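ok new one. same drill as before - structure tokens go in, u give me an amino acid for every spot. 230 of them this time. try not to just spam alanines like last time pls lmao
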């Protein structure tokens, strides 16, 4: 029985809309994989180096270990919401560290557990004595999307929904808009924040393969569906 190409306009519109999206998502995952491979290479190189004084261009010193001398600001702390550890919900604590040179830094001191009531924030001790600390310059990998607005209350500590270093730094006059993650064993550290990327490059490649596979299946299905008997 003779067959002709007649997919119909509805199916054609669906494929024209979906196919570019699937292919774009695949290439986006490949770009993310390349970005993560770059991060991994820099991470392995710089984590083996000694801690140094913060360079002038700290943004270009991703994963570098820096040594700061000064004191923590005991009055102003940021609590980053919805951080889990061992199945428990809690917060990352971001504290302002004032260096002896007058420069301010956003130091992620690590994780603390939430209280039994979401209306009551945990009481987090902090020493304001002079000290030296070693922290890792954490790269800006982009802001996670929010389903709603993230208003900040006037008082302290401030509860925030994502690590927006620029917005946090804007609250102060002397703070660099860069996250520094305090290493384990350092003065003032809580349960240390992870010093590894949340997703390896290989996982991004796996996701890219899935998106390209869906695009292929859509194309093949479109061809098969389009041939109808007279």
């Amino acid at each position: 029985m003779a067959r002709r190409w007649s997919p119909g306009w509805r199916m054609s519109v669906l494929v024209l809309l979906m196919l570019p999206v699937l292919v774009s998502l695949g290439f986006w995952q490949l770009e993310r994989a390349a970005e993560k491979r770059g991060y991994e290479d820099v991470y392995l190189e710089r984590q083996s180096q000694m801690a140094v004084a913060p360079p002038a261009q700290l943004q270009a010193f991703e994963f570098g270990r820096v040594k700061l001398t000064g004191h923590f600001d005991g009055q102003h702390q940021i609590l980053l919401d919805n951080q889990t550890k061992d199945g428990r919900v809690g917060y990352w604590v971001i504290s302002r560290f004032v260096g002896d040179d007058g420069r301010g830094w956003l130091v992620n001191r690590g994780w603390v557990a939430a209280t039994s009531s979401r209306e009551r924030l945990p009481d987090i001790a902090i020493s304001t004595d002079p000290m030296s600390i070693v922290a890792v310059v954490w790269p800006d990998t982009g802001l996670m999307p929010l389903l709603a607005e993230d208003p900040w209350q006037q008082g302290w500590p401030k509860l925030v929904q994502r690590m927006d270093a620029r917005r946090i730094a804007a609250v102060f006059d002397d703070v660099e808009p860069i996250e520094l993650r305090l290493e384990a064993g350092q003065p003032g550290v809580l349960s240390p924040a992870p010093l590894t990327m949340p997703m390896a490059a290989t996982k991004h490649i796996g996701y890219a393969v899935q998106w390209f596979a869906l695009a292929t299946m859509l194309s093949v299905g479109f061809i098969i569906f389009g041939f109808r008997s007279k």
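The radius of gyration is 24 Å. and btw The first strand starts at residue 3 and ends at 5.
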